[in-house]
């Protein structure tokens, strides 16, 4: 049975799945997406912040609360692109082989870049703790900021660099599987599980950005994406979006080099929505 040439739509769907599976920070923050096309990089859009309500005692009449007034402007100033040459033989590969050879490294580059954008939002955070030799105390101290800000008890995260991970792994709290609370499952899956009411994740990009550790609620930060329009003059293109991510794939041909190319791009912006819902551990 002859191989089927890989289509832009098939590659776009596979690439999006890989991106979602490889992202760390992007999967831990609030994501906003709509299918409304934007003109391009630099557009500013207004997105709704997650609603908050107050519980009022009923005394014979209700108090209707406005759930739509909280909005925030986000500039879509990040236009990510990975373009690469492909051969006719590669375009007839099985999608699994094509993914391993080309899409996985391309989407890992996307995931790393988005993670760095989000981690860099630490510059907006004023809740800070200076790192000490007692990493458990440091974690408790940054957690205290979230509690003081009345952050919801669910969807609290703690993301840290390799140095902090090393310190954590040397504590009794994480060395013994019976203290992890999941019989060691989280350790095998490269996560330290849930401790102190937060989900613990190491992010290799935290080293590059200089984040020793950051505790935050999901709604502290936002990743916003919008679809890019399909280019005119070609039918070999596709857009796919799912769960707050959007990718565009375009096939092209370089007349000078006589090669086929595949271009994968993504338009996004990041924003601190509520700095009070985050706290940072800084190195001395």
Give a brief description.
This protein has 284 residues and is α+β, with helices and mostly antiparallel strands. Helices cover 28% and strands 30% of the residues. The protein folds into two domains: 8-51 and 65-120 and 222-268, no CATH class; 125-220 and 275-282, hypothetical protein PF0899 domain (hypothetical protein PF0899 fold), CATH 3.30.2320.
Description:
The protein is α+β, with helices and mostly antiparallel strands. The protein is built from 8 helices and 14 strands. It has helices at residues 8-22, 95-119, 135-148, 162-169, 172-175, 177-180, 185-188, 205-209, and strands at 30-33, 44-48, 71-75, 78-86, 128-130, 156-160, 191-195, 198-202, 213-217, 221-225, 237-242, 245-254, 259-272, 278-282. Strands 1, 4, 10, 11, 12 and 13 form a 6-stranded mixed beta sheet that branches. A 6-stranded mixed beta sheet has the order 5-14-9-6-8-7. Helix 1 (8-22) packs across helix 2. The longest helix has 25 residues, at 95-119. The radius of gyration is 22 Å and the shape is globular. Residues 182-190 have low confidence and may be disordered.
């Amino acid at each position: 049975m002859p191989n089927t040439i890989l289509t832009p739509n098939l590659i776009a769907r596979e690439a999006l799945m890989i991106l979602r599976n490889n992202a760390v920070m992007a999967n831990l923050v609030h994501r906003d997406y709509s299918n409304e096309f934007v003109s391009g990089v630099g557009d500013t859009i207004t997105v709704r912040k997650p609603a908050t309500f107050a519980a009022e005692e009923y005394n014979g009449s209700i108090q209707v609360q406005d759930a739509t007034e909280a909005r925030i402007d986000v500039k879509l100033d990040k236009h990510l692109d990975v373009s690469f040459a492909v051969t006719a033989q590669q375009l007839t590969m099985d999608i699994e082989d094509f993914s391993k050879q080309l899409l996985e490294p391309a989407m890992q580059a996307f995931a790393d870049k988005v993670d760095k954008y989000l981690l860099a939002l630490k510059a907006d955070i004023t809740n800070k703790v200076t790192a000490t030799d007692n990493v458990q105390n440091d974690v408790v101290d940054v957690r205290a900021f979230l509690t003081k800000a009345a952050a919801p008890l669910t969807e609290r995260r703690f993301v840290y660099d390799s140095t902090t991970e090393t310190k954590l792994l040397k504590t009794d709290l994480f060395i013994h599987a019976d203290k992890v609370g999941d019989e060691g499952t989280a350790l095998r899956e490269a996560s330290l599980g849930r401790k102190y009411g937060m989900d613990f994740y190491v992010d290799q990009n935290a080293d590059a950005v200089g984040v020793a550790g950051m505790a935050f609620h999901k709604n502290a930060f936002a990743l916003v994406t919008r679809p890019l329009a399909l280019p005119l003059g070609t039918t070999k293109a596709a857009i796919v979006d799912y769960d707050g991510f959007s990718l565009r794939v375009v096939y092209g041909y370089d007349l000078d080099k006589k090669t086929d190319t595949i271009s994968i791009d993504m338009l996004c912006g990041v924003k601190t929505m509520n700095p009070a819902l985050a706290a940072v551990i800084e190195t001395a």
